[in-house]
Amino acid sequence: GADPCLPAPALTPVSMDPDIVQKAKELVKRVQADPSLIHKTEMSFLKDFVETFNVPAPPQFQDVDDDSDFDDMPGLEDPAGSSGQPSAPPPMEENNTSDEEEEAEDPGRVEPDDDEPAEMGDPTVEVTDEMREKATPLKIEASDLLASGDVVGALAKYTEVIKLAPSALAYANRATCFAKLKKPNAAIRDCNAALELNSDSAKALKTRGKAYRMLGDWELAHKDLTQGQAIDFDEGTDEVQRFVSAKVKAKHERDLRRKKKKAAPRSSGTGGMGGMGGMG
User: Fold this and answer.
1) Could you tell me which residues come within 8 angstroms of residue 65 by beta carbon, excluding any fewer than 6 positions away?
2) How far is CA 45 from CA 10, 24, 33, 41, in A?
């Protein structure tokens, strides 16, 4: 037998057929675009392979959120930087700026869009395996276009997906495109549709929160971002969330000061007539 004291012989590198490698890449892309494919009988080998790494296969016919395309959303940077962990807003000094001054100081604010609503498909339709199969190449094209920076092209492809096989993820992905194009109202409309189909869609919640942030609707943005982060935390959204939380706190402080100023004249104008009750 082999001497256990001797080192094991080096393994000879195996060269891979480029055609096989390319086909493997295409298969992975298809599964990434539609994770439910991994549950098909002919794909059981891939499902078994994935699970050997103690990674559960994605649920059947359920959208999988992917927030990697939020990294370069315009105007959503947090000036304070990222902590890498969920965090409360940093302590703030008293803020005496007005709402108008706050808006002028925020370069991330955009004018509300009032375009004609995009085609919404029929979200009530029962999507069949055949419809899902036909939509998969379109999802891949949309993802590739978005990765290459062609947001308008990606948006058009996601619209085709929505018309063919509407899903929460399809609406949320198109909402991301609208947000990148600085069309927050259109993004909110798609996120609403996504959340009608899946109320726990972290992607839809976070995209809608970022759209509200663009409009300066701090309370609504804070609510959505907090809920989305609780479902699926990511550092990029944490930056936006802390920025929004600081805005909410500043607004509450201004509202409190206004209430105190309104109450002050009334409180100082009463009293002083005490002691008059004995007259008569």
Assistant:
1) 169, 172, 201, 202, 203, 232
2) 29, 13, 18, 9
Amino acid residing at 148: S
Contact status, residue 34 vs residue 136, Cβ threshold 8 Å: yes
Contact 172, 166 (CB under 8 A): no
Rounded to whole angstroms, what are the CA distances from 129 to 35, 104, 135, 182?
13, 50, 10, 34
**Angle in degrees, CA 36, 195, 32, rounded to 5:** 25
- pTM here? 0.66
CA distance linking residue 154 with residue 146, whole number of Å:
5
If one counts every other C-beta atom within 10 angstroms of the C-beta of residue 45, the result is 8
| Contact (Cβ atoms closer than 8 angstroms) between residue 80 and residue 91 | no
Q: How far apart are CA 188 and CA 176, in angstroms?
A: 10
Burial 265-280 (b: 16+ CB within 10 A, else e): eeeeeeeeeeeeeeee
pLDDT tens readout for residues 89-148? 444 444 455 555 555 578 899 999 999 999 999 999 999 999 999 999 999 999 999 999
